[in-house]
Write a structure and sequence with these properties.
The chain has 498 residues and is mostly helical. The protein is built from 22 helices and 2 strands. It has a two-stranded parallel sheet with strand order 1-2. Helix 15 runs antiparallel to helix 16. It is globular and about 60 Å long.
């Protein structure tokens, strides 16, 4: 492990000289504004809790090494609450003037956050690629701890000076957090460092370490971009006008054309799962006329923001191939790219349903609801598990059938929301393009018909059971979420403030 430790030290020294830290030490902005780059890190910092719980942690640790890594995750998952406390002490809610819809745009659609959205998937890719080998995971986890120590070493001085002026303690950015972070996994030295790795493990651990430092280099670039674009100019990010679908149409159903007997069996399996899902009690509740169409939508739609808006990055970064090497991989990329554009319509629906008013959230309470409300955990965890599944299985046939499963669960979902959305449109004159199913324009000459697609690569008989397992995971996750929505909708959790 000696080589990994030397690499860590060299890269830590290098990243400590990042231009963002020069900015933080400069007087380009006043002391009171130097920590207000926090919105740039909101997604990364709040999502870090989930990374520790569902990505880095070993569910059943079987060695001292796995226990040490888990020890680090148990501490790190707590820090998002400290971040929110500092957010409020910095008066960022008033500075930004954001409501819930603005936060959703900022986190999931704004160009300024692209590097942070991509980094989340790259964290997961590292954990998938390490094969649950604690030695390899140490390589990238230690790099993460080292960069965190560099970051906090710089923010702590600013926070201390600011505390002297305001009388407030800044737990996340200040000395308290720095004291918790030694820069080592689990705040423990001597467990991994003395291990002698074979050549293959040494190279893999070093590569993982390098990749993590590269990720953080991009993150610090993102912080600097925010500082230069907004703090240096005295401006704040503003959500652009939301877009609508160009025409009135309903996305045609997708029909899969089988290429062989294996495809036929997969189609039967998917159709059976769709039939089961169609009978879910939540959908019966959606058809119940005890509440107006708008109220029925308002009672559950907020629960699904992670699925709807997170679907973009699942397709863009997890399901696609960065360097497609075959026509099948190119075909997967083309479909995933098209699917990644759907979420852009959602914020228009959000406005039409007046969900900012219904929820009544400012920026910090929106972050708290998205990432710390227990009712949202299931949705976030499932999106992470989908990404891990996609990253774990690179065969284009497997990824394609996973996309079929994801789209199939959505088919019935939109079949149920469409009548409600159309009723709201008739009543209010406002469009609900996303919930009405106007996502993907039909092909020329196929308007109102069916869209027929075929798998871009054959699914081997030896892959069939795995493809069914992936499909079942997707449908089971949807079933769980529908039960959660059923309970939340009936309780009226999201309409009590309306």
């Amino acid at each position: 492990m000696e080589n990994v430790v030397k690499l860590r030290d060299a890269r830590q020294e290098q990243i400590s000289r990042h231009a963002f830290f020069d900015w933080m030490r400069s007087d380009v902005v006043s002391l009171s504004d130097r920590l207000t780059f926090a919105p740039a890190g909101a997604l990364f910092i709040m999502q870090f809790r989930d990374m520790n719980r569902w990505v880095l942690r070993f569910p059943e640790p079987r060695s001292e090494f796995e226990w040490v890594i888990n020890l680090g995750t148990l501490e790190d998952e707590k820090h998002s609450r400290m971040f929110l406390q500092d957010w409020r002490k910095l008066d960022l809610d008033n500075r930004l003037g954001w409501r819930a819809g603005d936060v959703l745009w900022w986190l999931f659609l704004s160009p300024d956050q692209e590097v942070f959205r991509r980094s989340g998937i790259e964290f997961m890719r590292l954990a998938v690629d390490d094969g649950d080998d604690a030695m390899i995971r140490f390589g990238h986890s230690e790099a993460g701890e080292a960069t965190g120590h560099v970051m906090l070493s710089n923010t702590a001085g600013v926070a201390s000076e600011l505390s002297a002026l305001t009388g407030l303690d800044y737990g996340y950015f200040g000395p308290y957090h720095l004291e918790l972070e030694s820069g080592h996994v689990g705040n423990t030295e001597g467990v991994f460092e003395t291990v002698v790795l074979d050549r293959d493990s040494r190279e893999r651990a070093s590569a993982a370490c390098t990749r993590m430092f590269d990720i953080f280099d991009g993150i610090f670039d993102g912080f600097l971009h925010y500082a230069a674009t907004y703090l240096n100019t005295g401006t704040t990010p503003r959500r652009p006008r939301t877009r609508s679908a160009a025409e009135d149409w309903t996305a045609p159903p997708v029909e899969i054309h089988p290429c062989d007997d294996v495809d036929v069996e997969m189609i039967r399996h998917v159709e059976a799962r769709k039939q089961q899902l169609r009978a879910h009690p939540f959908y019966a509740w959606l058809r119940d006329a005890n509440h107006t169409p708008a109220e029925r939508l308002r009672r559950f739609v907020p629960m699904w923001v992670m699925d709807i808006l997170g679907y973009r990055d699942l397709n863009r970064y997890a399901l696609t191939y960065a360097e497609p090497a075959s026509p099948a991989e190119c075909a997967v990329n083309a479909w995933a790219s098209r699917l990644s554009e759907h979420s852009g319509l959602f914020l228009s629906d959000w406005e039409a349903l007046d969900l900012d008013q219904v929820l009544g959230h400012d920026a910090s309470s929106t972050l708290e609801w998205l990432f710390l409300d227990a009712d949202m955990d299931l949705h976030r965890q499932n999106m992470i598990e989908f990404a891990k599944l996609a990253l774990r299985h690179r065969a284009p046939a497997l990824r394609w059938w996973m996309m079929v499963a994801l789209e199939s669960t959505g088919e019935e979902f939109f079949a149920q929301t469409r009548p409600l959305a159309l009723a709201v449109e008739t009543e209010t004159g406002q469009r609900l393009d996303y919930l009405a199913g106007r996502h993907d324009p039909p092909a020329t000459g196929n308007r109102g018909g069916r869209t027929v697609i075929s798998a871009p690569a054959p699914l081997g008989r030896d892959q069939l059971e795995l493809a069914k397992t992936i499909t079942n995971h997707v449908f089971d996750s949807m079933d769980q979420q529908l039960w959660r929505s059923y309970a939340i909708a009936r309780a009226g959790k999201h309409v009590q403030s309306a």
